[in-house]
């Protein structure tokens, strides 16, 4: 009823206006900590639909609620194209938002001079990531993902590889191995040997061929893939013997780690990607939020601060499979992790950025009524084929199905089911990425620099500038993480006190 009263809308807008006036002064502190939340495939339609889903899961209409990312004060758009692709992939984009350089699709941690799949174009074309810049500045660093830890997004943080699919040497062509290229799992262990926190899936790429998996010993497809006979997990454990390092592979082990006594954590919870959150075994598999909480508690002990990359990586997988319900629940879970990170850190000294690498050809429409289930039907049947249709549709993908030469009547199937594949205009085994700009949400020190419409590779330059790492150090007073970025002394004293209090 209150929505029918103009007073409701006017007073809400006035409150918003007042808050906007109060946040006019940009935060120009030094960012002690940097967190990047990357929703893989989380285009703007996915954000909007995830917001509605989040509201509906708590019994509301949905459209009016706020995601945690919606609460960030600064928003900009990111142009996602790769140097050789109008519609990009996750590898070339990861190189942009982690290394600050646009690149070719399918390549990670190398410039556009490198050619996908051609090993001999690697050398001399490597580019380093903000994770490395932060590590070199004395910060603790971490990677948390719902995909394999050597998947496209995380790998651009530590690897230099002309093919994102070279997960282990078992997936590499003989020629690439002869030319001296290293697989991504090996690069994870060797390139930046002291990454403090690594969590996600991908056990099989760390283990020798025919080594059975600890969780699925009977299943051949989950066995090790390495041809070089190395057990990278055991090597990691041995290297950390006296260094407060812990290896865990299930939720119980993860939650039994005491963050105050752990300096290194390797958590590999599946042989491949983690399961979808909707399908997760809540007793044995950690959620993204649980992983993020442990990561931050370990990383934040460093007085110099930390850099953390968090990937909600299976939003992308849900969309590729045409399974909007899986994708949107993945996005809601990532938003929950954003909220948890916000409680564990302070916007005073922590720059948090939330963005996507690219979009998908996912959308929802059809003049649905207020509060209509996000997975529900449009209120009318088609005036062409006289059949109902779901609000959510894909431009292409596996949801294209014909019965007797015409479109499936969706009222005869369970379109609310977790794995329901929404209808698509063009049949494809895998739905494709979308090419439109994606949102960048930012809060904390120097967040105001993420404004306007920018190239995707601008993101790590802002983050590095805010934290005084990488190539942007000239504006920083000294190496001390408690100093401020060239502002008046009173605020400086305040920052030092605040930093001291937060430790």
TrEMBL record:
<protein>
    <recommendedName>
        <fullName>Alkaline phosphatase</fullName>
        <ecNumber>3.1.3.1</ecNumber>
    </recommendedName>
</protein>
<feature type="binding site">
    <location>
        <position position="40"/>
    </location>
    <ligand>
        <name>Mg(2+)</name>
    </ligand>
</feature>
<feature type="binding site">
    <location>
        <position position="151"/>
    </location>
    <ligand>
        <name>Mg(2+)</name>
    </ligand>
</feature>
<feature type="binding site">
    <location>
        <position position="316"/>
    </location>
    <ligand>
        <name>Zn(2+)</name>
    </ligand>
</feature>
<keyword id="KW-0460">Magnesium</keyword>
<keyword id="KW-1003">Cell membrane</keyword>
<keyword id="KW-0449">Lipoprotein</keyword>
<keyword id="KW-0862">Zinc</keyword>
<feature type="binding site">
    <location>
        <position position="358"/>
    </location>
    <ligand>
        <name>Zn(2+)</name>
    </ligand>
</feature>
<comment type="subunit">
    <text>Homodimer.</text>
</comment>
<dbReference type="InterPro" id="IPR001952">
    <property type="entry name" value="Alkaline_phosphatase"/>
</dbReference>
<keyword id="KW-0479">Metal-binding</keyword>
<keyword id="KW-0325">Glycoprotein</keyword>
<dbReference type="GO" id="GO:0004035">
    <property type="term" value="F:alkaline phosphatase activity"/>
</dbReference>
<dbReference type="InterPro" id="IPR017850">
    <property type="entry name" value="Alkaline_phosphatase_core_sf"/>
</dbReference>
<keyword id="KW-0472">Membrane</keyword>
<dbReference type="GO" id="GO:0046872">
    <property type="term" value="F:metal ion binding"/>
</dbReference>
<keyword id="KW-0378">Hydrolase</keyword>
<feature type="active site" description="Phosphoserine intermediate">
    <location>
        <position position="90"/>
    </location>
</feature>
<feature type="binding site">
    <location>
        <position position="357"/>
    </location>
    <ligand>
        <name>Zn(2+)</name>
    </ligand>
</feature>
<feature type="binding site">
    <location>
        <position position="153"/>
    </location>
    <ligand>
        <name>Mg(2+)</name>
    </ligand>
</feature>
<feature type="binding site">
    <location>
        <position position="40"/>
    </location>
    <ligand>
        <name>Zn(2+)</name>
    </ligand>
</feature>
<dbReference type="GO" id="GO:0009612">
    <property type="term" value="P:response to mechanical stimulus"/>
</dbReference>
<keyword id="KW-0336">GPI-anchor</keyword>
<feature type="binding site">
    <location>
        <position position="311"/>
    </location>
    <ligand>
        <name>Mg(2+)</name>
    </ligand>
</feature>
<dbReference type="GO" id="GO:0005886">
    <property type="term" value="C:plasma membrane"/>
</dbReference>
<feature type="binding site">
    <location>
        <position position="320"/>
    </location>
    <ligand>
        <name>Zn(2+)</name>
    </ligand>
</feature>
<dbReference type="InterPro" id="IPR018299">
    <property type="entry name" value="Alkaline_phosphatase_AS"/>
</dbReference>
<feature type="binding site">
    <location>
        <position position="433"/>
    </location>
    <ligand>
        <name>Zn(2+)</name>
    </ligand>
</feature>
<dbReference type="Pfam" id="PF00245">
    <property type="entry name" value="Alk_phosphatase"/>
</dbReference>
<dbReference type="GO" id="GO:0030282">
    <property type="term" value="P:bone mineralization"/>
</dbReference>
<dbReference type="GO" id="GO:0098552">
    <property type="term" value="C:side of membrane"/>
</dbReference>
<comment type="similarity">
    <text>Belongs to the alkaline phosphatase family.</text>
</comment>
């Amino acid at each position: 009823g209150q929505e029918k009263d103009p007073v409701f809308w006017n007073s809400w807008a006035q409150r918003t206006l007042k808050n906007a006036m109060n946040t006019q002064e940009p935060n120009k502190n030094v960012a002690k900590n940097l967190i990047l939340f990357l929703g893989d495939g989380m285009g703007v339609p996915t954000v909007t639909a995830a917001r509605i889903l989040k509201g509906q899961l708590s019994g509301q209409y949905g459209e009016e609620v706020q995601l945690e990312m919606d609460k960030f004060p600064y928003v900009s758009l990111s142009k996602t194209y790769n140097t050789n692709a109008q519609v990009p992939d996750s590898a070339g984009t990861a190189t942009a938002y982690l290394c600050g350089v646009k690149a070719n699709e399918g390549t990670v941690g190398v410039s556009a001079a490198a050619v996908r799949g051609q090993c001999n174009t690697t050398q001399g074309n490597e580019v380093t990531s903000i994770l490395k810049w932060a590590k070199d500045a004395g910060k603790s660093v971490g990677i948390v993902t719902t995909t394999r830890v050597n998947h496209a997004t995380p790998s651009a943080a530590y690897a230099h590889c002309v093919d994102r699919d070279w997960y282990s040497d078992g997936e590499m062509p003989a020629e690439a191995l002869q030319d001296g290229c290293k697989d991504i799992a090996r690069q994870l262990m060797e390139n930046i040997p002291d990454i403090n926190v690594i969590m996600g899936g991908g056990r099989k790429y760390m283990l020798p061929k025919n080594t059975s998996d600890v969780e699925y010993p009977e299943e051949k497809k989950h066995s090790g893939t390495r041809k070089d006979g190395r057990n990278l997990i055991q090597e990691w454990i041995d290297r950390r013997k006296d260094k407060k390092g812990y290896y865990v592979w299930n939720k119980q082990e993860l939650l039994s780690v005491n963050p105050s006594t752990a300096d290194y954590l390797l958590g590999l919870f599946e042989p491949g990607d983690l399961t979808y959150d909707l399908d997760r075994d809540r007793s044995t598999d950690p959620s993204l939020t649980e992983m993020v909480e442990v990561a931050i508690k370990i990383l934040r002990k460093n007085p110099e601060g930390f850099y953390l990359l968090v990937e909600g990586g299976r939003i992308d997988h849900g969309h590729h499979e045409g399974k909007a319900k899986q994708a949107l629940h993945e996005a809601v879970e990532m938003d929950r992790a954003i909220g948890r990170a916000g409680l564990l850190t302070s916007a005073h000294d922590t720059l948090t950025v939330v963005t996507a690498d690219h979009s998908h050809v996912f959308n929802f429409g059809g003049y649905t009524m207020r509060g209509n289930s996000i997975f529900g039907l449009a209120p009318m049947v088609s005036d062409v084929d006289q059949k109902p249709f779901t609000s959510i549709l894909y431009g292409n993908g596996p949801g294209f199905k014909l019965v007797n030469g015409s479109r499936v009547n969706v009222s005869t199937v369970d379109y609310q089911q977790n794995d329901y594949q929404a209808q698509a205009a063009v049949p494809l085994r895998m739905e494709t990425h979308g090419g439109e700009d994606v949102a960048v949400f930012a809060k904390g020190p120097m967040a105001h620099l993420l404004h306007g419409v920018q190239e995707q590779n601008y993101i790590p330059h802002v983050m590095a500038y805010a934290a005084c790492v990488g190539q942007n150090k000239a504006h920083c007073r000294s190496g001390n993480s408690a100093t401020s970025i060239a502002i008046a002394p009173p605020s400086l004293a305040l920052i030092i006190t605040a930093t001291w209090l937060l430790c």
